[in-house]
Amino acid sequence: MTATTQASEQVDSGQIRPALLEGAELERRRREAHSISAPFASEYPFEAQFLRLESGHVMHFLDEGSPAAPVLLCLHGNPTWSFAFRALVREYSATHRVVVPDHIGCGYSDKPSAYPYRLENHIDNLSQLTQALGLRDVTLVLHDWGGAIGMGWATREPHNVSALVITNTAAFRSRRMPLRIAACRTPLLGRLAVQGLNAFARGATHMALEQTDKMRGAVRAGYLAPYNNFANRFATWAFVRDIPLTSDHPSYALLEQIETSLKQFQKLPACILWGEKDWCFTPEFRREWQAFLPQAEVHPFPQAGHLVIEDGGREFIEHLTSFLRRSRKG
Length: 330
Fold this sequence. Notes:
The chain is of the alpha/beta class and about 325 residues long. The chain is built from 13 helices and nine strands. Strand 6, helix 5 and strand 7 form a beta-alpha-beta unit.
């Protein structure tokens, strides 16, 4: 989507109001997305939707199911995209409205280089999407960076959050950073590896799950497709740099504020589904979530890695289905 990205970078952000794409522009975007997804269409057969943001950039999202149904808002991390939630879209679109955005820089959303890529920007974008779609009574499904982004949105609109589903993520400060992530943050070699050689996305297809036989063919193609050249991997590098470890980092104060606000969600139904073999978001992070949300039901997956939805398979779906049923009754 290089031409589309370049075009959207030329829009004056001061004169844009968020608007869903329609007509010829929507159809053009859908054709572009369809051409990319053709090799894995059987895994990702969903109709692309798009929102032009205040920045002028265009966010891609899925919106499957009845607009009147309970909302599942699924938020991905780095270096994945809405493809990571395809099993949930298939499973729940008959009973829920399943909304799954691609953060700017990811998936089928625009991938500008002249863009801040800070936590605050991602939260702002999500707020614009939820307002444009009129989402209320939302169950958040959070993974990786989706935790900080989703809970950042939740602290702005707590009245619109009805339940939380937490999967291998964080929305609080940590000084712990795995060596593999730290290496990717180095100014020269890190950027060369992440943006130049696609080491982060390719590495994730090997190191982010335990059952590596599931990461073959169309599934592997789907995870990698949006990050097929240097320009399209800019956000992959930017997300790594935006991890706030010290108080002088631009996103540190906001993450601290989100962490402080987590206690207001202690009465909400919450479910923690955790891949225990995740080398990044280790069980230590799960225990921290349990401290913040002591009411949460917890389902550790001893043989699952970071991509717990992939590793967990039907067992993951069964636990989530049971929780969704109980949370609606409550």
